[in-house]
Specification:
This protein has 541 residues and is mainly α. It folds into two domains: 3-424, Up-down Bundle (Na+/H+ antiporter like fold), CATH 1.20.1530; 425-484. The protein has helices at residues 13-36, 40-51, 64-81, 85-90, 92-117, 123-133, 140-147, 152-182, 187-217, 222-243, 247-265, 268-305, 310-342, 344-349, 355-363, 369-376, 391-420, 427-451, 459-478, 487-515, 521-536, and strands at 3-7, 59-62. The longest helix has 38 residues, at 268-305.
Length: 541
């Protein structure tokens, strides 16, 4: 069971009403995020923490053995699948420095500060806290940065860092927890194991990616393919975890491998359904995780208050959160400029970024679901059978740090980007998109000309389709013409507006036919799907 214990303040019908209230609260927070334009991770952090303190809320205790296994693989796989391999490759040096150096420095700095600040916290427990807080979150950081209008390269670096740093952090976390459980630790063994585990994890991810690629290539059934895609992160993660190597890198590698090949493997019908499924799944996983930890939060705080005063808890939370933020600045700024000063080749191939971009990379270090899942996965007892030292305090400090970084930094990131003049207006990305659409239309006309003499191609059909693509070429070509008066674009938008009205009339008619019994729901949905596909192609809303 994911929730190993629930001690409700109410029972029976009353408990049903409490759970109903929790679900209503979650829906309300998500609607509020949509209405306000605030990235949903921010409201999830606030809302999840508030739910546990609702009158009559159940006191849930999550099973540590299942938290990482259930939540982490799909979160990592989806982030990797939808990432750009070209962008990751082009920013590999920056991503590697952050994913390894920033993680190790954060683990070290937070561990030292926690050990010196918190009475009775052992070195092993302190470094466990540091390792849990060292990775940035793949969903929170990129979602908030993209919504705030951060430059595209900055978002790419943040996304790439969050994919790789989870492996570095969770390997460090694994050694820190093992040291706490057994009471022993070897830095040489840890360094050697890190390299071996990373290489083995990547190898397992590649093998799984290759096998699933062939499996998907031989399958053409959306429900089956979506189910396989859901199982793929576990196909990679679980064998790697069982072998004691980097399960995180296994899941990430499989995601990148399949994401790169997805255009060749997935049919248009499957792609529309699968992408919608994964978007909803990641949304639900994040919401569920924060709701569950919110229900456990009162228990965690109560246990921490048994040995620590409220003033000390507030002090510890503030210091640890600020240490996490400061450690990132301590690494990012030197790591940005030092390699370019020491190597002329690095300076030539990768010029110094604007100071505003460097500051934003350092500032954008949100912690989220990964840190939360790792904290909840800390064992409750050591090998000696005694409680894991400071487990409840660690979970509390992790939640406070997530609250500070996601809410505090998340809400100020947008104004900061605007203040620094680093807003990405999207013109560069739009220009490349226009070029790609232009080239695609030209390829279509070339193919029409090649097929015009084939028996099954009628001349009027080829002419009608050629005119469609010729208009598309004129439309996108006009976007590169500084002297264009906008007439073509205006005409296209007017046509789309008319098409939308006509589609609405078609949709209204098939609904009327269904309501009057002329057609059944199955027929209505088949026609409705075709209308929906045409509607989605419209650029106007």
């Amino acid at each position: 069971m994911l929730v190993s214990a629930v001690t409700p303040a109410a029972s029976g019908a009353e408990l049903d009403l409490v759970l109903f209230g929790v679900l209503v609260a979650v829906a309300a927070f998500l609607i509020a995020a949509h209405r306000s334009g605030i990235p949903y991770p921010i409201l999830l952090v606030i809302g999840g923490g508030a739910l546990g303190f609702m009158p009559g809320a159940p006191n849930a205790v999550l099973d540590p053995d299942l938290v990482l296994i259930i939540f982490l693989p799909p979160l990592l796989y989806a982030a990797a699948f939808f990432s750009s391999l070209h962008d990751l490759r082009d920013n590999l040096r920056s991503i590697s420095l952050l994913a390894i150096g920033a993680v190790l420095l954060t683990t070290l700095v937070v561990g030292v500060v926690a050990h010196e600040l918190i009475d009775g916290m052992s070195w092993a427990a302190a470094f466990t806290l540091g390792a849990v807080l060292s990775p940035t979150d793949p969903v929170a950081a990129s979602a908030i940065a993209a919504r705030a209008g951060a430059p595209r390269r900055l978002v790419t670096v943040i996304e790439g860092e969050s994919l790789v740093n989870d492996s570095t952090a969770l390997i460090a976390y694994k050694f820190a927890v093992a040291a706490t459980l057994t009471g022993s630790f070897s830095i040489l063994e840890a360094a050697g194991t890190f390299v071996v585990n990373a290489a083995a994890g990547i190898a397992i991810g590649v093998v799984v990616g290759m096998i699933v690629t062939e499996l998907r290539r031989a399958t053409d059934d959306p429900p089956t393919e979506i189910t396989i895609s859901l199982l793929t992160p576990y196909f990679a993660y679980l064998p790697a975890a069982a072998a004691g190597v980097s399960a995180v890198l296994a899941a990430v590698t499989a995601g990148i491998w399949l994401g790169w090949r997805s255009p060749e493997l997935i049919t248009p019908t499957t792609r529309m359904q699968a992408f919608a499924f994964w978007e909803i799944l990641i949304f639900i996983l994040n919401a569920t995780l924060f709701v569950l930890v919110g229900l456990e939060l009162p228990h965690v705080i109560e246990a921490a208050r048994a040995t620590t005063s409220d003033a000390q808890l507030a002090l510890y939370g503030a210091v640890v959160a600020l240490t996490v933020i400061a450690a990132r600045f301590l690494w990012v700024i030197p790591a940005t400029y030092a390699p370019r000063l020491l190597s002329k080749g690095t300076h030539r191939d990768d010029p110094v970024p604007p100071r505003s971009h460097t500051f934003l990379v350092a500032f954008t270090g949100m912690r989220g679901a990964v840190s939360l899942a790792a904290a909840l996965a800390i064992p409750e007892t050591t090998d000696a059978g005694v409680p894991f030292p400071g487990r409840d305090l660690i979970i509390f400090l992790v939640y406070v740090t997530i609250l500070v970084t996601v809410v505090g930094q998340g809400l100020t990131l947008g104004p900061l980007i605007r203040r620094l003049g680093a807003v990405d207006d999207g013109e560069g990305q739009q220009r490349w998109e226009n070029k790609a659409r232009l080239r695609a239309a030209q390829a279509a006309i070339t193919r029409i000309d090649e097929l015009v003499d084939v028996d099954w191609v009628h001349e009027d059909s080829a002419d009608r389709m050629r005119r469609l693509y010729e208009f598309r070429i004129r439309r996108f070509g006009a976007r590169f013409d500084d002297g264009d008066d906008g007439a073509i674009e205006e005409g296209s938008l007017a046509y789309q507006r008319l098409r939308r009205e006509v589609l609405a009339a078609e949709r209204g008619e098939i609904i009327r036919l269904r309501n009057q019994g002329y057609i059944n729901d199955e027929v209505m949905r088949r026609i409705e799907r075709d209308l929906d596909l045409e509607h989605e192609r419209l650029e106007i809303t």
